[in-house]
Amino acid sequence: MTASDATTGRMIAPYGDQLVDLMVPAAEIDDVHDYAARLPSIQLSERSVCDLELLATGAFSPLDHFMGEADHRRVLDEMRLASGHLFPIPVTLPVAPDAGITVGQDIALRNANNDLLAIMTVDEAYPWDPDEVAEKVFGTRDPRHPLVAEMQHWGRINLAGRPRVLQLPRHYDFLDLRRTPAETRRHLEETGHRNVVAFQTRNPLHRVHEELTKRASAEVDGVLLLHPVVGMTKPGDVDHYTRVRTYKALAENYYDPDRIVLSLLPLAMRMAGPREALWHAVIRRNYGANHLIVGRDHASPGVDSQGKPYYGPYDAQELVERFTGELGVRVVPFSELLYLPDDDRYEEVSRIPDGTRTAAISGTQVREQYLGAGRPLPAWFTRPEVAEILGEVYPPKHRQGICIWFTGLSGAGKSTTSDVLTLLLIEHGRQVTVLDGDVVRTHLSQGLGFSKADRDTNILRIGYVASEIARHGGVVLCAAVSPYRATRDEVRALVGPERFLEIFVDTPLGVCEERDVKGMYAKARRGEITGFTGIDDPYEAPLEPEITLDTVTHTPEQNARRILDFLAERGLVRGASPASRPAATPVGAPA
Ligand code: ADP
Ligand code: ADP
Q1: Is 451 a catalytic residue?
Q2: 225 forms bridges with which residues in the sheet?
Q3: pLDDT in tens, 9-58
């Protein structure tokens, strides 16, 4: 792969004219490998591994390094690199201040399995401020924003430098569809079209998307680069394995082979809305696209903790359009299409005469009324191949995983309520695992104390296990004090917001103290233990819990039944409707 491959004179040139290439030449690999074995290492997060891959292959051209302070500052303030090139998103390598790395040192970059990926001379090490990045890049400090929550746990020092890459992150899935920018350009060129229109997606594609992408490529007389993100997307998205199976089925069966190139993009999305859309345009230019389809709410993180969208629906489109002249990537606006059942075709909303019958199914309806209810998706909405794949992977709601997260002071009643709820859920055919804070601290989190760092570690461990259980269709009840809002929000993001129920056990401190089941409050008051939540350590009550329980006026059974009803109303358990239930069922252990 050389830079000249990329500039053919036909297709749009990479941004900055040459594709960055950070791969160590084959002849030097053995020597660099030996050298790397003697260097101090840092382990990259999943996100940094994605960033490294895109840096190495030139997808972020002209950026060829983890950003230094001058780049970082200018990206935050002006969406540009220090060189003046447009670049709206920081690409940094955060490490903990105690990582023991000094400027000028060579270090080895490894993945989570300690496989060696690259070496890098550390050019700079500088502090950064998550609140400033949140404000400037994401336009919000709301901890419900997945990146705002995630950034709280990034190291506070950024290392800058140009990696020399020995090994791209290894992938074993869909190898035929994984292409570097240079390889993608070659494929696109073979189709013989100068105009390339890229479609960015993190969702399964239905017929409306098929229509829209076909119209877009016809409109510019070009080829479609179907370019789904397979790195990191929004927590809770359909996993990329499932999505790619649907894209393949579509590309193989429903598109003219000369009009489509399906390629996977190992990007770690930031869900930064408008800035992210502009970033997508820079990236797609490097892959050879001179058009990008941008619709409503591009790269949207959903809604904030007040239920409001973070960005205006067309902010992303407008921002990319503003820089089209400079970047050379034009926006193909994603016009809204509706299905006309009487004509069996799709049409743009603006062209549909008043009174015409139309049909559409929203993403929520797909999940709730079709997949969640075990009903097949209609053929006018999605191709049968796609419907079959989605049906396999998304079982009906009453078999989907859920994480029920109890939070509240010690002695509030989290364990007591979850014990009752466990029995009710088993009675209704659910498999239940309980992760009780006190119990988890005796094995999974043995040795952790009650400092903020240790509490966060404990909660994130519980959150991780919970996310795995929920992912595999189990119900997991977590009962830990979990005093910090941002950490709970991070767990929500990890588990997937649609599977996460936050239950605030809102028992007043005075009541907990009076109960003092374990005598802890008395000890804390006497000063025998310090840092006790509610006494001399903070408790941040949830702002928007799904359910708030009152344990003073309601018994554990009443509260557990209230949660059961909530789940039943949402189809998450079957046969638990309040009307069909005897008035007072005694709660006892099963035989
Ligand atoms: P946590 O798990 O929140 O630390 P526990 O469930 O271990 O709290 O302790 C709560 C204590 O309060 C138990 O001794 C329980 O019997 C008592 N209690 C009294 N009323 C209630 C109620 N309505 N709901 C839950 N627990 C209650
Ligand atoms: P966290 O969310 O803080 O990790 P856990 O639910 O894992 O909380 O553990 C809290 C339990 O540990 C409490 O029910 C209490 O019995 C006990 N505990 C001991 N020291 C403390 C403390 N300093 N603050 C809160 N709980 C404490």
Answers
A1: no
A2: 198, 261
A3: 589 999 999 999 999 999 999 999 999 999 999 999 999 999 999 999 99
Can you tell me the mean pLDDT for 114-139?
98
Q: With a 6 A CB cut-off, is 410 part of the ligand 1 pocket? A: yes
Instruction: pLDDT band for 585, please (50, 70, 90 cuts).
Output: very low
**Torsion angle of alpha carbons 433, 438, 444, 447, nearest 10°?**
180
Q: pLDDT at position 583, please?
A: 44
Q: Distance between CA 96 and CA 112 in Å, rounded? A: 16
Render 184-207 in DSSP notation, one character per residue: HHHHHHHTT-S-EEEEEESS---H
Query: 6: pLDDT confidence band, cut at 50, 70 and 90?
Result: very low
Indicate the pLDDT class of residue 526, thresholds 50, 70 and 90: very high
DSSP letter for 264, please.
B
Asked which of 57-66, 345-354, 413-422 is least confident by mean pLDDT, the reply is 345-354
State if pTM tops 0.85.
no
Beta carbons within 8 Å of 283's beta carbon, 6+ residues apart? 54, 59, 60, 265, 267
CA angle 274, 88, 487 (to 5 degrees): 75
Ligand 1 atom closest to 408 (CA): 3
The length of the chain in residues reads: 591
Q: Which residues, at least 6 apart from 381, have a Cβ–Cβ distance to it below 8 Å?
A: 206, 207, 208, 339, 359, 361
**Mutate-to-test residue for ligand 1 from 416, 419, 434, highest number of ligand atoms within 8 A of CB:** 416
User: Would you state the structure tokens that stand for residue 550, as one six-digit string?
Assistant: 């009152």
Evaluate: CB of 555 within 6 angstroms of ligand 1. Answer: yes
The three-state (H, E, C) secondary structure of 432-444, written as one string = EEEEEHHHHCCCC
Which residue is catalytic, options 445, 482, 577, 580?
A: 482
Q: Which helix (H) or strand (E) holds 345?
A: strand 345-348
CA triplet 152, 155, 156: central angle to 5 degrees?
85
User: 295-336 pLDDT, tens per residue?
Assistant: 888 999 999 999 999 999 999 999 999 999 999 999 998 778
The side-by-side arrangement of strands in the sheet containing 291-294 is 260-262, 223-228, 196-201, 291-294, 330-333
Most confident stretch, 4-18, 227-241, 410-424 = 410-424
- Which SS3 state, helix, strand or coil, does residue 338 take? strand
Segment holding 384, helix H or strand E: helix 384-393
3-state secondary structure of 127: strand
CA angle 163, 165, 168 (to 5 degrees): 130
